[in-house]
Amino acid sequence: MSWSSLIPATSFMPIQATEIAKEVDLLYAFLIIASLVSFVILIGGMTWFLIKFKRTSVDQKSAYITHNNFAEFLWSFIPLVIMMGIFYWGMVIFEKLRTPPEDVAAEIHVTAEQWAWTYRYANGKEFYSSANDPMIVPAGKATKLILTSKDVIHSFYVPAFRTKQDAVPGKLTQLWFEPKQPGEYIVFCTEYCGTKHSGMMIKIKAIPSEEYAAWYHAEKKGADSPADLGKVLFAQKACASCHSIDGSRVVGPTMKGLFGSERKFADGTKAKADENYLRESILVSSAKIVETYPAAMPLFQGQLSDEDVANLIEYIKSIK
Ligand code: CUA
């Protein structure tokens, strides 16, 4: 949107490092201007009426209007239209902020704990947050984060990207962004999580995508990739005795093409198979039973760590 360049780069806001940041700021600027205009109309009008209709003597009759349908309609209907417009505008931006594109260049599992972040890449590169290990992402390409927490609720907030997402224990949430330029962007935890809450600051470092590819494939810092570890676990837990990986029907649904597909359940509801759905189905499969299948899968809650679950999910995602 070219008209979003109306917002001066030198405003009091943090830099606009993504396209969405510009859109958020434009809406924000509109809200501020609309508030100012409303303020002038309301307070200015009131002041003007105070002066114009000032009672100058005791026996002067006061102006007394009981009712005016037209005026009341106008001051209800016009604000309603403006408010619905703002609602729609915000909804469109929110939808963009919440929906990662189909092809993301990097997917990173982010685990929050008191008081640090760990990030793990699809090939097993793993970092425990510190100033020396910024989260490396490609510039000009989309990155998706899959967040969870080991203890309390934390929140991953990147002011320059105008986006944030809670990291919730026992749940997977996601966040995506596409930094336009290489650079370093600060990340705050914005959910009060204890003594060193303010110390949960890390940096995202966006580097040109060719450089990113070289960095990504260079010497690994972690062990095997999450998908490889998930594959081992899939065999160890005998998942294959009920779930095929080639599309054939066994006791339970096949894993082939499962991720991202639409699931229909025995109770008539539907859901898209995202990370959080896979997590729930692995731990407590009875929560959502896929139609035409029996509720036969044992409970894995308490038997798999968060990391095990993340690894299984990455393996399932790789079975296309
Ligand atoms: Cu983690 Cu606040």
From TrEMBL:
Cofactor descriptive note: Binds a copper A center.
Record-annotated Cytochrome c domain positions: 225-320
Domain Cytochrome oxidase subunit II transmembrane region profile: 4-101
Gene3D superfamilies noted in UniProt: 1.10.287.90, Cupredoxins - blue copper proteins, Cytochrome c-like domain
Transmembrane segments: 27-51, 72-91
Name this polypeptide is given: Cytochrome c oxidase subunit 2
Gene that this sequence comes from: ctaC
GO biological process assignments: ATP synthesis coupled electron transport
Keyword list, A-Z: Copper, Electron transport, Heme, Iron, Membrane, Metal-binding, Oxidoreductase, Respiratory chain, Translocase, Transmembrane, Transmembrane helix, Transport
Every Cytochrome oxidase subunit II copper A binding domain range: 103-218
UniProt GO cellular component terms: plasma membrane
Membrane topology per record: Multi-pass membrane protein
Species of origin: Leptospira biflexa serovar Patoc (strain Patoc 1 / ATCC 23582 / Paris)
